[in-house]
Amino acid sequence: MEKRKYPRRTCSIKAFFYDPPSSEIIESRDVSASGVYFNGDPKVNEGAIVHLRMEITVKGNGEEKTFPVDSAVEVVRITKGASGEVLGFGGKWVRVFCRGEIKPVTEFLRSVLGVTGGFVQTIAPETASEPPYYVFQFPTGEKEMQCSAQPSEEVQAPKEETEPKVSRTGIYVVMPIRYRVGNEEFEGRAVKLRSNGLRIATNGMTPDVYSKITIIIPTRHKDRLVDLELMATVTTVRAVSPAAEAQFEVEFSLANDAEKLRMYRRILDRVNESLSVQKKV
Asked: Which of 32, 160, 197, 254 has the smallest set of CB atoms within 10 Å of its CB?
């Protein structure tokens, strides 16, 4: 019987691929402090590194919070069915990271993996207006994880070693939207669209970081006007003066219906095409 250095436990984590890009939602079967098994096809060979956006839910003090966490995973084993179809893959954690606040990474390490050692590195942003990244690099070789995962001093990390590989580019727009916090709705404007989230400017209530809200986007679908509702998690809130509009960013939940996410990405494609045409004029 195989004896593992770090025991596995059953754990369901939803995720999707950043690189190679895919709209497929995959789910983990089990995890350990050193690796993970996902049901789904990574569409790469063994030895390659895939980049995933994961979503974890942590319960405590009567509250439930969802944290988006990015990861780099080395594919070490691919399992196939009798007819040769890919069923899933076993991976080794390389790094996990997040932007804005350290909590998603520390919650993932502590609550999901049970990791109690190492340091979370703070990577300074390229510009002062952007939030920092927090990165946990998993040990290699004979190194072991020991005490608690603590934040380190802010550094400018070598890009070839630890720079998070996640596209944060987006399209700057002015798009009227609404958002729902609990049972209350507020008006706002989408000012930046990304493939998996957006930035909102509003004079309404600013939701708490890592709270769950619903984004409501008026759009045309099958020749009629409909409200596209997407569940989202607030990831950052920008500090502003009381007299100015507040801005906050959200990431769309992986629990959203796949067709709704496709509808959003079609909106993104139409906006992108429109801007491309304007540039040519």
From this structure: 160
Structure tokens at 71: 């990861």
42 backbone dihedrals φ, ψ, rounded to 5°:
-75, -15
Domains of the chain, with CATH numbers? 9-162 (2.40.10), 171-280 (2.40.10.220)
Predicted TM-score of the model (pTM): 0.74
Distance from C-alpha of 213 to C-alpha of 253, rounded to nearest angstrom: 10
Q: What is the DSSP track for 182-231?
A: TTEEEEEEEEEEETTEEEEEESSPPPPTT-EEEEEEEEEETTEEEEEEEE
Is there a cis peptide before residue 20, judged by omega within 30 degrees of 0?
A: yes
Report helix, strand or coil for 259: helix
Residue 157: which of 128, 121, 119 has the closest Cα? Answer: 121
Helices then strands (H, E): number in the chain? 3, 16
Separation CA 188–CA 202 (nearest Å): 4
**For the residues 92-105, what does the mean pLDDT come to?**
91
Could you give the CA distance from residue 176 to residue 179 in angstroms, rounded to a whole number?
10
HSE-CB at 254 with a 13 A cutoff on CA atoms is 21
What does the alpha-carbon distance between residue 24 and residue 120 come to, in Å, rounded to a whole number?
Answer: 29
pLDDT band at 148 (very low <50, low <70, confident <90, very high): very low
Q: CA neighbours within 13 Å on the CB side: how many for 132?
A: 17
Are the C-beta atoms of 54 and 38 separated by less than 8 Å?
no
